[in-house]
UniProtKB/TrEMBL annotation:
The chain crosses the membrane at residues 6-22, 31-51, 76-102, 114-132, 138-155, 167-188, 212-233, 275-297, 304-323, 335-354, 417-439, 459-478. PANTHER family: NADH-UBIQUINONE OXIDOREDUCTASE CHAIN 4, PROTON-TRANSLOCATING NADH-QUINONE OXIDOREDUCTASE, CHAIN M. GO terms for biological process: ATP synthesis coupled electron transport; electron transport coupled proton transport. Its EC number is 1.6.99.5. The lineage of its organism: Bacteria, Pseudomonadati, Bacteroidota, Bacteroidia, Bacteroidales. This is Proton-translocating NADH-quinone oxidoreductase, chain M. The gene is nuoM. One of its GO terms (cellular component) is membrane. Coiled coil: none annotated. Belongs to the complex I subunit 4 family. It comes from the Bacteria. InterPro entries: NADH_Q_OxRdtase_chainM/4 (IPR010227), NADH_UbQ_OxRdtase (IPR003918), ND/Mrp_TM (IPR001750). Pfam families: Proton_antipo_M. It is a multi-pass membrane protein. Keywords: Membrane, Oxidoreductase, Transmembrane, Transmembrane helix.
Amino acid sequence: MSWILTVFVIIPVLMLCGLWVAKNDNQVRGLMVAGSTALLVGAIWLTVYFVQQRNAGNHDAMLLANSVMWFKPLNIAFSVGVDGISVVMILLSAVIVFTGTFASWQLEPMKKEYFLWFVLLASGVFGFFISTDMFTMFMFYEVALIPMYLLIGVWGTGPKEYSAMKLTLMLMGGSALLILGILGIYYFSGATTMDVTELARMHAMPKNAQNIFFPFVFIGFGVLGALFPFHTWSPDGHASAPTAVSMLHAGVLMKLGGYGCLRIAMFLMPDALQTWAPVFLVLTTISVVYGALSACVQTDLKYINAYSSVSHCGMVLFALLMMTQTAITGAILQMLSHGLMTALFFACIGMIYHRAGTRDVRYLGGLMKVIPFLAVSYVVAGLANLGLPGFSGFVAEMTIFVGSFENAGMFHRVATIISCTAIVITAVYILRVVGKILFQAIPNKKFYELHDATWDERFAVGALIFCVAGLGLCPLFFENMIIDAVHPIFDHIIAYVPTLGNL
């Protein structure tokens, strides 16, 4: 059954072919609904199958593993396989693509061309998460990045050309560092394989070489994960992107950064982690607090959520670098939680903007009276974002901070306490915005004419609320899957640096 993972690449390719020959908007919508539904059903089946296999005693590091050599001189293979982390990321991606389809139901103009690039972006994301070969991962990583330029530059708003160019240049700069790091790992590990699992088993890379190439890979992925000070592309890109692109971008694409940092940088170069962890821990602590503080002074709803994403994605990298099993588990939960709640946030913001014609909080007010469904949905997204118990944000953040405080070292505990302040700051800007745009007096008489969410918008938003609440109320199902994958990674790193978790 190893071929089953290729379905997550084949379906988007078939969707691209279908969209290419589609004649009208109804055919485009039908193809997108059919394809995104197939991806979601496939992701749910994969999740159930994975749990069944683990319960049946199958403890292979990667399930459904398969490898086909496609460039022998550099030992590049199309290698696929999934563990618990991969499975939850694939499920997250499928949910965002599915809901993003309905959030873009009324998009104009050039609906067909828009969805072509949207599906290409999604294919890169799915390919990245199923790959276990470093170069194949990098290839899909680039496939996911390239469409962003056109999706923002053509269908975006505001200074969209500037935002698209800035995003592309900064992420391509990170890619340049990344390919140098990948080639460094390959050649200094004996130049025999690019498979991540095999490279980790061999552990042939000298420590000096690890110290050189670790920052290349970590920064390369960290740029996409909004690592300070390489985060500046993110707020501009989010603010200018169309609604569904913002959902996929913040909800899934930025998670490639944290996933790559763990799967390649930390897993394959554990000796260098002890050297570089304190440096990057300082940067990620700054990301967490700086992102939250920056959100407090923004007036554009998208910029507020974009800087909030900088803070929450910084929390992912922060937790990974804390190097306790609980903290790493919390980091993956945060990736899943943030992907869902930020997609919900961007969906609500896009729908409000479509009706009110502005995202500026200074010119919004009284929306609870005129568009109650979207207003309540925005409140739910905000409460999840600030970590209210019962929602996904609480589970993820509590796991991160409890795991981080397990480190006995003063440096780690001070960093944890500083990062915890972001929770309070997040409550400040969320509650301030909710009070301003939903409950204050209606500033414009035209707002009385606004209509609430349509059926397609209600469906997309309702599905995301269900997922956010479901993860918050029943987290153990996903947490057990994540722990199952984190445990061997953590044991591998600690085996080479036994004191790393207690610095």
